[in-house]
Design goal:
Blueprint (H helix, E strand, L loop, with lengths): L1 E9 L10 H11 L3 E7 L8 E5 L2 E11 L11 E4 L12 H10 L3 E4 L27 E6 H8 L3 H9 L10 H12 L5 E5 L5 E5 L2 E5 L2 H5 L2 E7 L7 H14 L2 E5 L9 E6 L2 E4 L3 E3 L4 E17 L2 E16 L3 E11 L2 E8 L2 E4 L12
Parallel strand pairs: 1-2, 2-4, 6-7, 7-8, 15-20
Antiparallel strand pairs: 1-11, 3-4, 4-5, 5-6, 9-10, 11-12, 12-19, 13-14, 13-16, 16-17, 16-18, 18-19, 18-20
């Protein structure tokens, strides 16, 4: 399969970001990304989609949308919407209807920053997802770079420190978000995970100090999605758009924190006597399934089943385990960076299903 690096959940001047789509594409090229998805608040700027080329390097820029009810305060239930080819923001007041319309329009949707605590220091309210009774969403944003800032900035001094040294912010997805994801997938539902930068590149002034808080280039070097495609990008917008969005909707990706070191080359797969599966796939238990992990560099590796750690390896570049138990299996990888243990890689699951006749149909959540 072909691996590409993709950053998503990005804001431009069309909502509350500071840059144009051209600025975002230029920053993505500079950062070495293959693709980005811009998701402005409640506006679909689809005419900006396309391939952008700078200094001989091209990047695929796709356009989605972050939809939420602007008339409600605080504005909870943010939904990242991709691939609908229509404006759905007017339907934000009824999230279930919105999710249904996304699905009926051939798109996919991911719950944005499921747990997003308040940052009272700057008047930022809690904008977590609040209605888990809703069904039909494709997945959730497991790791959001901006939300994590709100969990570590506890005063003006720490906020100023992180503004100048943002590389110290990221540690791992919030524990409560991981717990909710495991709860959903262990119940038999397919819920794909993506990582989001929530990039705004805001210009801030504090006395004589003028600074762009977390430039696009910083975000694009940090929390990314590494998407596994059946073939390389062709340079054809319509074809490549469909291939990328379909892979995200299937969960054929992992979340990599690329700032400590590139996560390119990570692989997590499953094998039985009848075939193979990759992240996002289902595989029948048969007489046993062998899970295999390959890391691009030595690190701490954990294998989880239904949210519980079942095997750990330290200072390794690979791991393998044969199981005879059905369940939802995923990988977490940690490595030291800037004096502390930090999350490096979080995979989407491989779903090992019982041998009950033919493969059971599992819809998204």
């Amino acid at each position: 399969m072909e691996e590409i690096s993709l950053n998503l959940h990005i804001h431009s001047k069309y909502s509350d970001g500071s840059g144009t789509h051209e600025d975002i594409a230029r920053a993505a090229c500079k950062s070495g990304l293959d693709a980005v998805i811009v998701t402005d608040h409640n506006v679909l700027v689809s005419e900006k989609e396309g391939y952008y080329t700078f200094d001989g390097r091209s990047v695929l820029l796709l356009v989605g949308e972050e939809i939420h009810n602007q008339a409600k305060f605080p504005q909870k239930n943010h939904l990242l919407v991709f691939g609908t080819n229509r404006e759905l923001a007017p339907f934000a007041p009824d999230p279930q209807n919105l999710i249904n319309l996304v699905k009926n329009s051939g798109g996919s949707c991911f719950i944005a920053h499921p747990v997003d605590p308040p940052l009272e220091l700057f008047g930022e309210p809690d904008i977590s997802w609040e209605d888990w009774s809703l069904t039909g969403f494709t997945g959730l944003e497991l790791w959001n770079g901006f939300s994590e800032l709100k969990s570590v900035a506890h005063g003006y001094l720490s906020a100023i420190f992180y503004a100048f040294f943002p590389q110290f912010i990221a540690h791992a997805p919030l524990a409560s978000t991981l717990m909710k994801w495991d709860e959903l997938t262990a119940s038999g539902k397919r819920v794909c995970a993506v990582g989001g930068s929530d990039a705004h590149a805001l210009h801030k002034t504090l006395g004589p100090i003028n600074r762009t808080i977390f430039p696009y280039t910083f975000h694009f070097s940090a929390i990314n999605n590494h998407v596994m495609l059946p073939e390389p990008l062709r340079g054809d917008l319509a074809f490549d758009r469909g291939m990328v969005l379909n892979a995200l909707a299937r969960g054929n990706n992992f979340i990599g924190y690329d700032l400590p070191a590139s996560t390119r080359g990570f692989r997590f797969s499953a094998h039985n006597k009848k075939g193979d599966a990759v992240m996002g796939d289902e595989i029948a238990l048969e007489d046993g399934v062998t899970l295999q992990v390959k890391l691009p560099a030595a690190a701490e590796l954990r294998l989880l089943c239904d949210g519980e750690v079942i095997r750990e390896w330290s200072n390794t570049t690979n791991g393998a385990l044969t199981t005879t138990q059905p369940g939802v299996y995923r990988i977490e990888v940690f490595r030291p960076y800037l004096g502390t243990r930090r999350g490096w890689i979080f995979s989407n699951p491989v779903y090992i299903r019982p041998n009950i006749g033919r493969r059971r149909p599992y819809d998204h959540e």
